[in-house]
Structures
1.
Amino acid sequence: MSSIKDRADLIKQAAAQMGKETYKGTAAKAQQPRTEYQKSSPKIATLEEAIRKCGLKDGMTISFHHHFRGGDKVVNMVVDKLAEMGFKNLSLAASSLQDVHAPLIEHIKNGVITEISTSGLRGELADEISRGLMEKPVVFRSHGGRGSAIRNGDLYIDVAFIGASSCDPLGNACGFSRSENAKSICGSLGYAIPDAHHADKVVVLTDDLVEYPNTPSSISEHLVDYVVVCDSVGDSSKISSGAIRDTKNPRDILLAKQAAKVVINSGYFNNGFSIQTGSGGASLAVVKYIRESMIEKGIKASFALGGITAHMVKLHEEGLIDRLVDVQSFDRAAAESIMKDPNHREVSAISYASADEPSSATHFLDIVILSALEVDVNFNVNVLVGSDGIIRGAIGGHPDTAADSGISIVVCPLLRGRIPCVVDEVTTLITPGSTVDVVVTEYGIAVNPGRPEIMERLKAAGLNIVTMEYLRDRALSVIGQPDPLPFGDKVVGIVMNRDGSVMDVIKNIVEK
């Protein structure tokens, strides 16, 4: 056995070989109480401190998510602070922007924000941008396209600001909270996850600082640089406002029932099928009308995807849907479900719908039911620009799911008021007609000629099959040919395809 001296010599030799010092002895054990240690986390900062520590400079890109939708408070809070601190020429990369973000108008006028990248715009902000507010056009991407752009560097984010329903002092964050102090809940943080992974710096804002460890977490402490505690990050009651609605409109109900018949007779309604519905009232309501057939035929879905709603949660709890794959919780019921149900899984925007991600969930999607502002005779769809030329919606996952699904079903009325929804050519191309299989209206169902097998199945089921030209002519017979829109020459928006190519542009609308 070697002596203590021999062992000490060997330790010195090993340390020298590794270029290290030898161990000098035990340091005194820290006696700081755990609660005090948590409060002293170096990541805790005020919003202004976090901004300064991140090294943000004029001309950089900041990002946000929209999981609180119309109840979001983070975008306005952060940009107000940036304006107060004197920042200029910033690029704002949001997963989507809502009516509540109208205060950005003044920050654009004052030069704080000079570029925007988003999936959608609504309200007064959208109206002003449509009329030429910004010098540089807004870049619109689908949710899957945005995820890809962040990952491959086309959309580089310097600082991501992420609103979280709860977070611990080290940065473990999620969209729900189990604490007694919970103020907000948004469910999935799927659209913020790519930002957290790829941004240069990440700041989490929360109104519920909880004890470590906050598990399960959507965003890991290893991705987070600073944690800011604020009064409120969002109003949960407004998540389901706007485009997401549980319809009671008789026409929407009729459309939903017709779309359900298409689903049931499509050839894709088999045991183990997968499904996603869009945010429109009629497309959301389809779930209620396929439930009865699922029970009658003994059919269960393997998973439901996308923006998860209370309807999907109910079918899951009844055992009719095995799993919920949630990139965005569309209501409080869905947000609460993801907190307690291990079969209700959160998924990032990349894993949800990016075209260049082999394992993205949309690649395994059988049926998608979508809404539309316009559909043209070539099955092209517009979900972004209204018939008045004003931006009033979002691309969302529309082109992603239409392209990847086994069957894509677009549900829209023939007319909205005195405005035709079936036209010769869509105002703005968002989803190419080659990826749209069926269009359901209250005056008939059109099937893409490229899908003759679906047409035969629906005809055999006795459904009223018509052509897109018939639907266009029917609309024109009621309202006549609309006047051309008074577009100007300024490009206010650029629409990106999900593969990163430029698909269309949006021009400014000119006052008559």
Note: The chain has a mean pLDDT of 94.
2.
Amino acid sequence: MENFFGILKAEPLYIQDLDSLEHFKAELIDYLVYYSNHRIKAKLKGLTPAQHRYQTLKAA
């Protein structure tokens, strides 16, 4: 979890000028979708977290 917040601080979401709490929430949700479903990770053998989770559950 610490790794996620470290990456979040380095990504554009953290440095954007967000004009309201609602704008922040919308951007955060978009980022969470990206992080889980589109961002590949070398530690997960080039899979996204969602793909890795699916493969793990399928194998069980």
Note: Helices lie at 2-10, 12-15, 21-37, 49-59.
3.
Amino acid sequence: MNRRKWGTGLAVLVLAALCLLPTPVLARTPDSVLLGGMPFGVRFMAEGIVVVGFSEAKQGELNPAYAAGLRQGDVITAVDGESVSTAEELSRRIGESRGLVEITYRRKDRERVAILCPAESERGRKAGLFIRDTVAGIGTVTWVDGETMTFGGLGHGICRDGTGDLIAISDGAAEGVSITGVTRGAPGVPGELQGIFTGEVFGSVEANTDCGVFGVFREIPGDCGGDVPVGSREDVHPGRAYIRCTVVGGEPEEYEVCITDINARSRDNRSFSIVVTDPELLERTGGIVQGMSGSPVLQDGRLVGAVTHVLVGDPAEGYGVFIDNMFEAAG
């Protein structure tokens, strides 16, 4: 199997769209996998045009879209009964319209209709919307199955801003990324690992779930760790563990943490608590920062979970998801 080095660094996904469970990509839980800890970029088309904000209206006037009943997170699917799939198409249709415009949209899987009266401007008719039809972000690979080339990452879903609803993905791609910097975390201010896309596509992203995103690589990334046994929730216990992630340089490293507060019945992405105890990681990042989501958690030589969240009040603490929750979500 040809191994290829395909990227360095990692960063968090901060994205938005609509909840729709995708097609699973796995048919089994392997006994062992290749260890992750390296970054990957996610880029895909959202299923519909997502409302992400509203422009300011003139004093004394209402924003046309907001006045029509549209809200952040709504997914626009049609104008005057004809489907639209890109932001450019939506803007053109509204700009060319005459009179009132019928906007069909989805909110929490329910289809609705808004009657919009566009505002007149020197550059045409405007709805007053900030919209998005594509989604892109950076996360961390948790594991790769060397036999099927399937992979899992993030440990949580890619969700709509403000609502927590999962994004419906279409034509997802996994790409290489590179670190550009890091902002250390502090109490009340989450840190973040900054990354950029390299432009190389290494595989597809096919599923977005509450316990991770999943897809298929074209080849095994060169920064993969060795073959590691897959653990289960029964293997997780309070005490020393390790997370594997890329913070500086081009290679993932392992850092010591402590597992506490285990919820053995957890079926979500907050299965146990993690406290960073590694002095080097605390010096570099202040603890867990946005961008470590998906970093594999190792205990007693087994892959038992992945990092998912940081506590805003204390960046040295966060949450992890059971690895068997990830495999169940994947298929």
Note: The longest strand covers residues 192-209.
